[in-house]
């Protein structure tokens, strides 16, 4: 089995991910690549894209006192076929300092096809100075599937607030789901 990557594993490069889920490709793609055929790399990228889905994950932190967090935030997307496993939300595309009071952060999550998105688990490791976090909502857009789902939360993920949970399982609000042409 061949699992080519051809991507950065670095917070400050590419999409900021330090973990990647790789899909197997046909042996022919790997053999062509050794002959320095630039076209095979492009074809390889298309082959991998066909087997995976890119999600845009937007996260809204509440506009309350001490709502932001310095803890390491993670998310797991659960679909009808599979789940993404735990994905660290390391590099926001919008803000250098992520998960601050009243801000929306945007992340890219790539995964094999997990089917229709059913629920998410989002939380943090409770490490750092100010760990408590007030999460308003999570929005997940899958352009290749033509669906954008909103996961309302409106609760604290904090050991000393609400019910003390630092991770929550959230279901999409059906009335806030948008469907469009992929």
What this model shows, in words?
The protein is mainly β. The chain has a domain at about 55-180: PLAT/LH2 domain (Lipoxygenase-1, Sandwich), CATH 2.60.60.20. The chain has 2 helices and 9 strands. The chain has helices at about 25-35, 40-50; strands at about 50-60, 75-80, 85-90, 105-110, 115-125, 135-140, 145-155, 165-170, 180. The strands form 2 sheets. The chain has a 5-stranded antiparallel β-sheet with strand order 4-1-6-7-9. A hairpin with a 4-residue loop joins β6 (about 135-140) and β7. α1 (about 25-35) packs antiparallel against α2 (about 40-50).
The chain-level mean pLDDT equals 86
Q: Unreliable runs, pLDDT <50, ≥5 residues?
A: none
- Identify the CATH class of one domain: Mainly Beta
Oligomerization category of the chains in this entry = single chain
Number of helices: 2
Order of helices and strands: HHEEEEEEEEE
Reported by name, the CATH topology of one domain is Lipoxygenase-1
Beta-strand residue fraction: 25-35%
Kindly report the spatial arrangement of strands forming the biggest sheet: 4-1-6-7-9
InterPro entries: Inner_ear_hair_cell_LOXHD, PLAT/LH2_dom, PLAT/LH2_dom_sf
Organism: Ceyx cyanopectus (Indigo-banded kingfisher)
Protein name: LOXH1 protein
